[in-house]
Amino acid sequence: MEALVLAAGLGTRLRPLTNSRPKPLIRIGEKTIIDYIIDSLKDFDEISFVVNYRKEILTDHIKEYIKRYDLNIRFIEQREVSGTASAISLSPYDEFLCINGDIFFEPYLISDVIKLYSKYNMNVISVKKVDDPENYGVVYKEGNDFLKICEKEKNPSSNLANIGVYFFTDEVLEAIKKIKKSERNEYEITDALNRCNAKVLEYKGFWNDIGYFWDILNTNEFIMEKLEHKILGNVEKNVKIIPPVYIGEETTVREGSYIVGPVVIGKSCKIGPNSFIRKNTVIGNNCHIGMSEIKNSIIYDKTNIPHFNYVGDSIIDENCNLGAGTMVANLRFDDKTVFMEVKGKKINSGRRKMGCIMGSNTKTGINVTIYPGRIIGSSCCVYPGRIVDKNMEDNTVLR
């Protein structure tokens, strides 16, 4: 059996994290989004990946990760990123599983989709009940028979969202040939599906479309619940570890540190002395976390948070350095949910606690304060004592 993974998108809503990597290489828990998708397809005969943005980085990563499985792979370049249907039309298969490359789901969804396809020999669309269906493709069904799908419909009478896992036959490929570009100037898979017969699978497990920064943190919290306890590095005396905690090779946790799992710490890190690392924190490789507190955050490789810092509910990209006393606020003073400005639009994260997003190669001086929900671009510099109360574009300096 074959699968097609759609991984060509630009991921503009996740900038600056996608400045240096394609969206499927966003890290969540111990692995990247694309790693979890590959794990769910380990029993397939072949996987094709549709790629475009930062394709060299993505293909190199996939080639390395796929070595653990006996899988054939191929890469298909979508030269013009012009919609999901356009990407699917590049499929080399007549019958295939199709997955959006920027979603997280529990692996049993794949077997359920295949079972339904095998029973009816028909296209399968997977859906999930959501509270905000107007933000997704809204699916209408009768029993498990597909009726129609409406993209981001206002005031929908269905709460079933299309979750981006399908089984397609050549009927869908033929339908794609007949559709025209939408108002968004894209070839929409919804337009093709409305020309097809299909069965609908209602999935009840965990799923997240990784479209915004808070989706990363929400998914990370789910993944970390299943972390296995393993200590491969060196832990000095008088360190308190509450499992589950994963500590990578050549990492040293120094005296006086307190780690409350689930926590992941990568290879060749220096932790402590007297670090306080709280649950749902993921720290990459070659990081230095000193006498600081980190909570519910994802810290990428080669980043230093060494002296009297607080980082909560945040994502800090690689090769960043926080000056002594830099504090990331993650709670509004009025205790309301945190809004973030993404692509010029203020959006409710739905989270009461949401810290900052910091792009790669950014540095802060001493005693910097960062307000909740702020986005700091790549290669930025914040001078000592400044307050970051607005988003910062890439390559800017706040003096």
Fold and architecture overview:
The protein is an alpha/beta fold and 399 residues long. It has 2 domains: 2-211, Spore Coat Polysaccharide Biosynthesis Protein SpsA, Chain A (Alpha-Beta Complex); 223-398, UDP N-Acetylglucosamine Acyltransferase, domain 1 (3 Solenoid). 15% of the residues lie in helices and 35% in strands. The strands form 9 sheets. Strands 14-17-20-23-25-27-32-35 form an 8-stranded parallel β-sheet. Strands 15, 16, 18, 19, 21, 22, 24 and 26 form an 8-stranded parallel β-sheet that branches. A hairpin with a 2-residue loop joins strand 2 (27-28) and strand 3. It is globular, with a radius of gyration of 22 Å.
Keywords:
globular, Spore Coat Polysaccharide Biosynthesis Protein SpsA, Chain A, 38 strands, UDP N-Acetylglucosamine Acyltransferase, domain 1, 8-stranded parallel beta sheet, alpha/beta, 15% helix
Strand element count: 38
Q: Which percent bin holds the helix content? A: 10-25%
- The amount of beta strand, in percent, is 25-35%
CATH level-1 class of the largest domain: Alpha Beta
Radius of gyration: 22 Å
Number of helices: 7
Number of domains: 2
CATH architecture type of the largest domain: Alpha-Beta Complex
How many strands, what sense, and barrel or not for the largest sheet?
A: 8 strands, parallel
Mean of residue pLDDT values:
95
What structural class do helix, strand and pairing data support?
alpha/beta
How widely separated are the two ends? 57 Å
Shape: globular
Strand order of the largest sheet: 14-17-20-23-25-27-32-35
What's the CATH topology name of the largest domain? Spore Coat Polysaccharide Biosynthesis Protein SpsA, Chain A
Poorly predicted segments: none
The CATH superfamily title of the largest domain: Spore Coat Polysaccharide Biosynthesis Protein SpsA, Chain A
